[in-house]
Amino acid sequence: MAPLGLLSSIVILPLLPTFSGLIKTESWPTLIEKINRGVLLCMVVLLPIISVMSSLADPIIHVLFERYAFDSSASALVSSLYLFYSLGSPFLIVRELVVAVFYAFGDGLRPFLVSIGAIALNAILDWFFVHRLHIGVQGLALSTSLTAALSLITLIHLLRRKVGGLFLLHELISPGLFLCFCCVISSFVSSFSYENISKIFLSEFMTRLSRIQELYCIVSAAALGIIGFFAPLVLVLYFSRYKLEHNNNLK
C-alpha cells in the first residue's frame, strides 16, 4: 500500500488547487471534466504497474522473500494475497482523488464518515469470508478490495449530489475498456517475456538461475510489459491526432 500512497500523492495533490479554483467559480462541467481526466491519469499511472507485477508476482516474491522457512508454499500464498489486494488498487487511488475533491469543497466530514463505515464493513466482510466462506487469509485481501470499491461508489454518489447530479461516468467507459485491453497485452507480454528470457538463461548456464540472473529476467520482462501497455496508447493517440489534422485540412 505504501507505493500506492506515493503514487496517489504524486498524481492527486497537484490537482487540488485546480479543483479548488473550479469549485470557487462553480464551474461544474469543467470540474467534472478535470475529475474524469484525473481518473484516467491515475489509471494510466497505476494499471501498467499492476498488470506487470501481477503477471510476475511469483518470480518477484521468490526473489525477494523465498529463503529459509519462507518456502515455495509461502511464496504461493503471498502471491495469491497480492493478486487479491491488487484488485482493489484502482478503487483505492480513485477514492483518494474523490476525497481530494471533497477537501476542495471544504468538506472533510463526509469522507470521514465513509471511512468509518468502510472500516466497519471491512471487519464484517473479514469475518464473513474467513469464518463463513472459509476462504482463508485470501478473504482478508478480498474484503479490503470490495470495501474500497463500495466506499468509492458511496463517495461518487455523495459527490454527484454536490455538483447537481453532473458526473458523466459513461465518458470513462470507452477509455476504461481500452486501458483494460492494454493491461491484458501488458500482462501477456510480461509473462511471455519472462518465460522465454528465463529459458535463454537456463540453456546458457544449464543451472538454476541465481537471484541476480532471476532479477535481470524480471526487470527485462517488466520493461517489455510496460512497453506493451503504452504502445497501443501511443498508436491510438497518434492516429487520433492524424485523423483530426486530416479532417481540419479538408475543411
UniProtKB/TrEMBL annotation:
Localization terms from the record: Cell membrane
The keyword NADP is assigned to this record: no
Principal subcellular localisation of the protein: membrane
Recorded topology in the membrane: Multi-pass membrane protein
Keywords: Cell membrane, Cell shape, Membrane, Peptidoglycan synthesis, Transmembrane, Transmembrane helix
Superkingdom of source: Eukaryota
GO CC, any one term: plasma membrane
Membrane-crossing residue ranges in chain numbering: 37-61, 82-106, 112-130, 137-160, 172-194, 215-239
A Pfam family annotated for this UniProt entry: MurJ
Keyword Cell membrane: yes
PANTHER family linked: LIPID II FLIPPASE MURJ-RELATED
Protein name as catalogued: Virulence factor MVIN
Lineage of origin: Eukaryota, Viridiplantae, Streptophyta, Embryophyta, Tracheophyta
